[in-house]
Amino acid sequence: SLNCVEWSLLPPATDEMVAQAEQLKGRFQGDPSFEYTYTEINAEDAERLFEDGKKPMIKEESRLVATIEQIDRAVGIIPRGAFVKTPLGSVRENRHFEGLSLTEAKKLSSYFHFTKPVNLKKKTLLEKADLDPSTDFLDSLEHDIPQGSWAVQLEKGGTVVVLRSLLWLGLTFYHVPMTKQYGYIYFGTGEKNLDLPFML
């Protein structure tokens, strides 16, 4: 929206848009039609991204779509048990989910990335033996790299658990233990904190 009254949907992100947006640095301009130029890009990346030899422009609207997709992939999370995998392989919202206990809600292992698992496939059979295939079918936050990229805090006298991403500053996830209430929101600059490994 340009006037906060009339709103339109963003187009879906493509892998090409995400790859191009990853090459850009700096903050957003606030104008969806603004065109970025690729100033600091090496020859190998240029050849991979732009096969015809020309360096096309990327509009801010496309960069915004790609950044939202990157944030959802990296830090879109759910509590353990909120979704279940059926024996046929489909994933559904768990109607019987009543929230995590306060003890479980304070552990990073109780939260999963809501994307296709990557690290789970690398686990050995011995590591998978303790997992419940109906609830533990996603990647846990406890194995995120770098270690320490999540801050867990208790708010409102311990009645709300809040997770904050130190990789995408501005991403906040909340869960009210023993209830179905959870969610996340992002209020940030759209820039990944690439200095995080040096800060930990």
UniProtKB/TrEMBL annotation:
The keyword Chaperone does not apply. It is found in: Cell projection, Kinocilium; Cytoplasm, Cytoskeleton, Flagellum axoneme. One of its GO terms (cellular component) is axoneme. GO terms for biological process: axoneme assembly; cilium movement involved in cell motility; motile cilium assembly. It comes from the Eukaryota. InterPro entries: RSP9. The keyword Cytoplasm applies. Keywords: Cell projection, Cilium, Cilium biogenesis/degradation, Cytoplasm, Cytoskeleton, Flagellum. Belongs to the flagellar radial spoke RSP9 family. This is Radial spoke head protein 9 homolog. It comes from Pelecanus crispus (Dalmatian pelican).
